[in-house]
Amino acid sequence: MSTNGLPPYDPQNIFARILRGEIPCKRVHEDAFALAFHDINPLAPVHVLVIPKGEYVSAADFHATASDAAIAGFWRAVAKVASEFGLDATGHRLLSNMGNDAGQEVPHFHVHIFGGRRLGRMVPPG
Ligand code: 5GP
Fold it and tell me: What's the pLDDT tens digit per position in 59-102?
Protein backbone atom coordinates (compact mmCIF):
# COMPACT_ATOMS: atom_id res chain seq x y z
CA MET A 1 0.00 0.00 0.00
CA SER A 2 1.28 3.48 -0.85
CA THR A 3 1.48 5.69 2.22
CA ASN A 4 3.23 8.68 0.62
CA GLY A 5 5.57 9.36 3.53
CA LEU A 6 2.94 8.79 6.21
CA PRO A 7 3.20 5.79 8.55
CA PRO A 8 1.48 2.58 7.39
CA TYR A 9 -2.24 2.29 8.04
CA ASP A 10 -2.98 1.92 11.75
CA PRO A 11 -6.08 -0.24 12.23
CA GLN A 12 -6.50 1.28 15.70
CA ASN A 13 -6.94 4.85 14.42
CA ILE A 14 -10.12 6.49 15.64
CA PHE A 15 -11.95 6.36 12.31
CA ALA A 16 -11.13 2.67 11.86
CA ARG A 17 -12.70 2.10 15.27
CA ILE A 18 -15.76 4.13 14.30
CA LEU A 19 -16.08 2.07 11.08
CA ARG A 20 -16.00 -1.14 13.13
CA GLY A 21 -18.64 0.24 15.48
CA GLU A 22 -16.28 0.11 18.46
CA ILE A 23 -16.92 3.73 19.30
CA PRO A 24 -20.05 5.72 18.52
CA CYS A 25 -20.58 8.47 16.00
CA LYS A 26 -23.49 10.65 14.93
CA ARG A 27 -24.01 8.94 11.57
CA VAL A 28 -25.66 10.85 8.75
CA HIS A 29 -25.07 8.49 5.81
CA GLU A 30 -23.71 5.04 5.11
CA ASP A 31 -23.43 2.98 1.94
CA ALA A 32 -21.10 0.36 0.48
CA PHE A 33 -18.30 2.87 -0.03
CA ALA A 34 -18.53 5.51 2.67
CA LEU A 35 -19.60 6.46 6.17
CA ALA A 36 -20.48 10.06 7.02
CA PHE A 37 -20.85 11.45 10.53
CA HIS A 38 -20.77 14.75 12.40
CA ASP A 39 -17.35 16.02 13.46
CA ILE A 40 -16.97 15.81 17.25
CA ASN A 41 -15.63 19.40 17.31
CA PRO A 42 -17.69 21.24 14.68
CA LEU A 43 -16.16 24.36 13.14
CA ALA A 44 -19.29 25.40 11.21
CA PRO A 45 -23.06 24.85 11.53
CA VAL A 46 -22.59 21.86 9.25
CA HIS A 47 -19.32 20.00 9.75
CA VAL A 48 -19.54 16.43 8.55
CA LEU A 49 -16.74 13.96 7.92
CA VAL A 50 -16.95 11.42 5.11
CA ILE A 51 -14.62 8.43 5.21
CA PRO A 52 -14.12 5.54 2.79
CA LYS A 53 -14.66 2.02 4.08
CA GLY A 54 -11.26 0.69 3.09
CA GLU A 55 -7.93 1.17 4.83
CA TYR A 56 -6.42 4.33 3.31
CA VAL A 57 -4.03 6.56 5.23
CA SER A 58 -4.49 9.71 3.16
CA ALA A 59 -5.95 11.33 0.07
CA ALA A 60 -2.85 10.36 -1.90
CA ASP A 61 -3.05 6.75 -0.71
CA PHE A 62 -6.77 6.52 -1.50
CA HIS A 63 -6.50 7.92 -5.02
CA ALA A 64 -3.42 5.84 -5.85
CA THR A 65 -4.67 2.50 -4.56
CA ALA A 66 -8.49 2.35 -4.31
CA SER A 67 -10.54 0.86 -7.15
CA ASP A 68 -12.30 3.14 -9.60
CA ALA A 69 -15.61 1.97 -8.13
CA ALA A 70 -14.49 2.83 -4.60
CA ILE A 71 -13.30 6.28 -5.66
CA ALA A 72 -16.48 7.04 -7.59
CA GLY A 73 -18.68 5.67 -4.82
CA PHE A 74 -16.88 7.69 -2.18
CA TRP A 75 -17.16 11.01 -4.03
CA ARG A 76 -20.81 10.37 -4.87
CA ALA A 77 -21.43 9.89 -1.15
CA VAL A 78 -19.68 13.20 -0.39
CA ALA A 79 -21.87 15.01 -2.92
CA LYS A 80 -25.02 13.28 -1.68
CA VAL A 81 -24.40 14.25 1.94
CA ALA A 82 -23.70 17.89 1.04
CA SER A 83 -26.88 17.95 -1.01
CA GLU A 84 -28.95 16.34 1.75
CA PHE A 85 -27.85 19.06 4.15
CA GLY A 86 -29.21 21.64 1.70
CA LEU A 87 -25.74 22.96 0.92
CA ASP A 88 -25.97 22.96 -2.87
CA ALA A 89 -27.98 26.17 -2.96
CA THR A 90 -26.05 27.99 -0.24
CA GLY A 91 -22.58 26.69 -1.09
CA HIS A 92 -20.15 24.64 0.98
CA ARG A 93 -16.50 23.68 1.28
CA LEU A 94 -14.87 20.28 0.89
CA LEU A 95 -11.49 19.89 2.58
CA SER A 96 -9.05 17.04 3.07
CA ASN A 97 -5.94 17.47 5.17
CA MET A 98 -3.03 15.37 3.96
CA GLY A 99 0.14 14.90 5.97
CA ASN A 100 2.21 17.18 8.18
CA ASP A 101 1.90 20.58 6.52
CA ALA A 102 -1.89 20.25 6.51
CA GLY A 103 -1.96 19.02 10.11
CA GLN A 104 -3.77 15.77 9.35
CA GLU A 105 -4.74 14.40 12.78
CA VAL A 106 -6.45 11.15 11.91
CA PRO A 107 -4.54 8.80 9.57
CA HIS A 108 -7.59 7.49 7.73
CA PHE A 109 -8.49 9.43 4.57
CA HIS A 110 -11.46 11.74 5.16
CA VAL A 111 -13.18 14.71 3.62
CA HIS A 112 -14.64 17.49 5.73
CA ILE A 113 -17.88 19.09 4.53
CA PHE A 114 -18.32 22.60 5.92
CA GLY A 115 -21.40 24.74 5.41
CA GLY A 116 -24.21 26.73 6.95
CA ARG A 117 -22.40 30.08 7.13
CA ARG A 118 -20.01 32.23 5.12
CA LEU A 119 -16.72 30.40 5.44
CA GLY A 120 -14.21 33.05 4.46
CA ARG A 121 -11.62 32.55 1.78
CA MET A 122 -9.31 29.60 1.50
CA VAL A 123 -6.34 29.26 3.87
CA PRO A 124 -5.53 31.56 6.82
CA PRO A 125 -2.28 33.52 6.37
CA GLY A 126 0.75 31.64 7.74
P1 5GP B 1 -7.96 16.19 10.34
O2 5GP B 1 -7.15 17.25 11.01
O3 5GP B 1 -7.30 14.83 10.45
O4 5GP B 1 -8.32 16.54 8.92
O5 5GP B 1 -9.34 16.17 11.08
C6 5GP B 1 -9.73 15.19 11.97
C7 5GP B 1 -11.10 15.58 12.48
O8 5GP B 1 -11.63 14.49 13.19
C9 5GP B 1 -11.12 16.79 13.41
O10 5GP B 1 -11.96 17.80 12.88
C11 5GP B 1 -11.66 16.23 14.72
O12 5GP B 1 -12.52 17.11 15.40
C13 5GP B 1 -12.38 14.97 14.26
N14 5GP B 1 -12.42 13.89 15.26
C15 5GP B 1 -11.38 13.42 15.99
N16 5GP B 1 -11.78 12.40 16.78
C17 5GP B 1 -13.10 12.23 16.53
C18 5GP B 1 -14.07 11.32 17.06
O19 5GP B 1 -13.80 10.47 17.89
N20 5GP B 1 -15.33 11.43 16.57
C21 5GP B 1 -15.67 12.37 15.62
N22 5GP B 1 -16.95 12.39 15.23
N23 5GP B 1 -14.78 13.23 15.12
C24 5GP B 1 -13.51 13.17 15.56
Answer: 999 999 999 999 999 999 999 999 999 999 999 999 999 999 99
Q: Give me the number of domains the chain comprises.
A: 1
- Residue of the CA atom closest to atom 15 of ligand 1: 40
DSSP state of 23: S
The answer to whether residue 53 is domain-embedded is yes
From ligand 1's centre to the CA of 103, what distance in Å? 12
Which ranges constitute the DSSP H helices of 20-67?
A: 59-65
pLDDT tens column, 27-54: 999 999 999 999 999 999 999 999 999 9
The residues annotated as belonging to the active site are 110
- Could you tell which of 18, 25, 40, 46 is best to mutate to test the pocket of ligand 1, judged by most ligand atoms within 8 Å of the CB? 40
- For residue 122, being part of any structural domain is answered with no
Q: Are 27 and 37 in contact (CB under 8 A)?
A: yes
For the whole model, what pTM was predicted? 0.96
Whether the CB of 100 sits within 6 Å of ligand 1: no
